[in-house]
Amino acid sequence: MLRNAILSSMLAVALLGAGHAYAASDTAIEGSYRLVQDDSFQRVLSFTPEGNVSQVSDQEALIGFTAGLGTWTRTGPNTVTATLINFKHDIKETDGGDGSARITYELTFSDPQDGKYRAVAGSYTGETFAETQNPLAPTEAPVNTFGTGFSGQRIDVGPAGAEPA
Q1: What is the percentage of the chain residues whose pLDDT exceeds 70?
Q2: What is the domain partition of the chain in residue ranges?
Q3: Kind and range of the H or E run holding 89
Q4: Alpha-carbon span 151 to 25, nearest angstrom
Q5: What secondary structure, in 3-state letters, does 12-77 show?
Q6: Distance, CA of 93 to CA of 27 (rounded, Å)
Q7: Side-chain half-sphere CA neighbours of 128 within 13 A
Q8: What is the mean predicted confidence (pLDDT) over 101-126?
Q9: Structurally, what CATH architecture does the domain formed by 27-154 represent?
């Protein structure tokens, strides 16, 4: 009986400790990261401590869409899901004109140094919607879908090892 009580206590402590380690991660995801996609195009994602995320891409003028804004949440100690919305101006992508896109990122952060992750890898999937559609409504059928993988690194002040100005 005593042995079962001790084992139960040890299991409870282990489970509480595992949950605490995830919730109280000392490694910061917040910051900006340069992503290089599998197709060589580039994006920058910026994560705030409040759970907001913004995106810019070198494809914005080429394909015809705006920067994106959205939210992110940790899904594990070093993993994140982020969802962003942007506006599209490409007839093919939005079924005839202006519309919007919803992009979902799945990110895994690595190489922790000095309390910050230095590297990231993952993929994103996107859906475009016509001007009359709501990209946040789960029942809306997208006009088009897209996606790719990427890898990237944290953007720091100055090059690595540089002295402050």
Answers
A1: 71
A2: 27-154
A3: none
A4: 22
A5: HHHHHHHHHHHHCCCCECCEEEEEEECCCCEEEEEECCCCEEEEEECCHHHHHECCEEEEEEEEEC
A6: 38
A7: 23
A8: 95
A9: Beta Barrel (2.40)
